[in-house]
Specification:
Oligomer: single chain
CATH architecture of one domain: Up-down Bundle
Structural class: mainly alpha
Shape: globular
Enzyme class: oxidoreductase
Catalytic activity: 2 R'C(R)SH + O2 = R'C(R)S-S(R)CR' + H2O2
CATH class of one domain: Mainly Alpha
CATH topology of one domain: Four Helix Bundle (Hemerythrin (Met), subunit A)
Keywords: Disulfide bond, FAD, Flavoprotein, Mitochondrion, Oxidoreductase
Distance between the termini: 27 Å
Number of strands: 0
GO molecular function: flavin adenine dinucleotide binding; flavin-dependent sulfhydryl oxidase activity
Largest sheet: none
Main location: mitochondrion
Helix content: 40-55%
Order of helices and strands: HHHHHHHHHH
Radius of gyration: 27 Å
């Protein structure tokens, strides 16, 4: 369901412009003019922390405390401590791996990408089990569910875009195949704007993905 893009439009006031310019690339501004965490991917929300000082210390053979500790350990073991052993020690024990891409810990609130994946999974799966010949009650409830998203979805940027799309391309709840195809088309529209691969919206492929699994039985 994620539709957010970097630095979404906000208020034209000078204060919001100042706030926007001070944000890291990819951070999205909410309708209140403030950074919107649930509208932003975690990698933009909290990017990797650079450690230039630590890297510099490693290049110089470690800190003085590390050198002293290595020397004392060498004397205690009776092996002595020479320039070559110092160099070897600093190239092994004091080496620190390069910073890795900061990933969101499992205990953190969802970001826009996790929320989007979970929402699409729920909607596609619900459509896969929707009746082929829905009753009026089925249709009314499905429409209520879909029409609630632009109002209740936590990411306001995504919700607004979905609401605008639904005005020009209303949900088709006439059958299971029609609903599944409509959702697939909405998902593809989002994926296209995000530069992601599109799905095959044929009902056979949708059923394979969201209901029956592949024919090779690998998901059974």
């Amino acid at each position: 369901m994620s539709t957010a893009t970097a630095n979404a439009p906000s208020s034209s006031s000078s204060s919001s412009s100042s706030t926007k310019s001070s944000l890291p690339p990819g951070m999205v501004i909410g309708p209140d003019g403030k950074p919107c965490k649930i509208c932003t991917a975690f990698r933009h929300w909290k990017p990797p922390v650079d450690k230039p000082k630590q890297t510099q210390n490693n290049a110089q053979g470690g800190t003085q405390q590390q050198k002293t500790a290595a020397m004392m350990a060498a004397f205690a073991s009776g092996t002595g401590f020479t320039a070559s052993s110092q160099q070897q020690q600093s190239s092994t024990s004091t080496a620190v791996p390069e910073p890795e891409q900061y990933t969101r810990p499992a205990y953190c609130p969802p970001d826009v990408e996790e929320l989007g994946r979970s929402t699409w999974t729920f909607l596609h799966t619900t459509a896969a089990y929707y009746p082929d010949k829905p009753t009026m009650a089925h249709r009314v409830n499905m429409l209520s569910l879909l029409r609630a998203l632009p109002v209740l979805y936590p990411c306001s940027v995504c919700a607004t875009h979905l609401g605008e799309t639904m005005k020009t391309h209303p949900p088709d709840v006439s059958s299971r195949a029609a609903l599944s195809r409509w959702l697939c088309e909405q998902h593809n529209e989002v994926n296209e704007r995000l530069g992601k691969e599109k799905f095959d919206c044929s009902i056979d492929k949708l059923d394979e993905r969201w209901k029956d699994g592949p024919t090779d039985g690998s998901c059974d």
